[in-house]
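Office hours follow-up: a student asked to see two folded examples consecutively, so here they are.
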Amino acid sequence: MLIMFIDESGTLPDPKDKFIVICGVGVKKIKEAENVISRILASLRRREIRVREIKFYYAGENTKRQFLSGIVSAGFEIFTLVVDKKGRKIADTSENFALLIADLVNEINLWYKIEKINFVVDRHFQRKTDQDKFNRYLRTEINKSLKCQIQHFDSQQNFLVNIADMAAGAVLWKYSGKDLQFYNLIKENIIIEKIVSWPEIKRKSLSRNKKFT
């Protein structure tokens, strides 16, 4: 079964963030992902750097390059959804976050054409009730033929989720005009790089749900 790590970069409600990037990184053998993380942690220990989690925005340039190069050398496939907020403040709710993830999940499903994917999402919501709401909303928005398992991991407890965080950060830096070097490291592994506006995502959801009412 394919494992797809998912994380976002950028914030929904902050109007200063023009874009939100949702990123999925496909891993077929979990051991390969564990090896990437192990090499990064060993390198950090050699440099006597202590970390609670490996996040793109907190990592130094050497760590970013090493991590992203590890993703590429392992052959992980990257899927990105770049959402133009159009200057809007987007409420950070289970429903809105599920709409963003669902748009990317549907693209991933079209690419792989497989029946089952295990989605591991960085724990965006701390409360179990919000996570359950997210799961329900997501299942209503994705292709009904896809059988998926949805797990929420704390990236401070499970560093594997940071694979998606690092890729998402690299893509966001491209679109925010901050730096291209990290995006260039992974661009050959990017299978889908879709750009869409938040109003378009909302319209598609309303149209889809209207068909079933």
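And the second, which I mentioned at the end of office hours:
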Amino acid sequence: MSSRSLAGALLVLCASLTGCTGRQIQAMRVHPEQAPTSPAAVSFQPWTGAAVVPNSNYPKDPNAARPQPPAQFASLKQPLTPTADNLAKGKDLFVANCAPCHGTDGRGTGPAAGSLNPHPADFAQPIHAKLPDGYWFWRLSVGGTVSPFKDVGSAMPPWEGTFTPQQRWQIILYEHTFSQHK
């Protein structure tokens, strides 16, 4: 087993079995040969087409539309407004728990990202500005525990047992600052 595969397997084991948070993941070392491409070197085209579709090839194809969330999530709307207080609380939660993988800039280049396959989402990609609230809440709540994410080995933990609904919505408000979500 390669060291990269072993690192990914250990990360998945840590996150899924022990309830490991981003603070523990942040302590992991990124190998220079696995360092992700500089976000400044990547340019994105505006997203055209539907942001979510019934049958999606995402996350195998990171440029594909995202899968539709289950019905209980699909119609959810963000109940909070982006006040300074909500954004500050969302940022604190994001930096402590999400930034180890997604990076402090939300580009998917955190210290643990190099060992993950699939790589963490880059929230600056134009598609993230068009994803509906229900999709965001679904992904944050269940993480990589459901298809199609578990089918490709997503290491994203389910945060529904860690954060209250209000905290998840605050994180989402903060994540929206990376994509200019409307």
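Two things to take away from it. Helices lie at 3-17, 22-26, 71-74, 84-97, 99-102, 133-142, 165-179. Strands lie at 52-53, 66-67.
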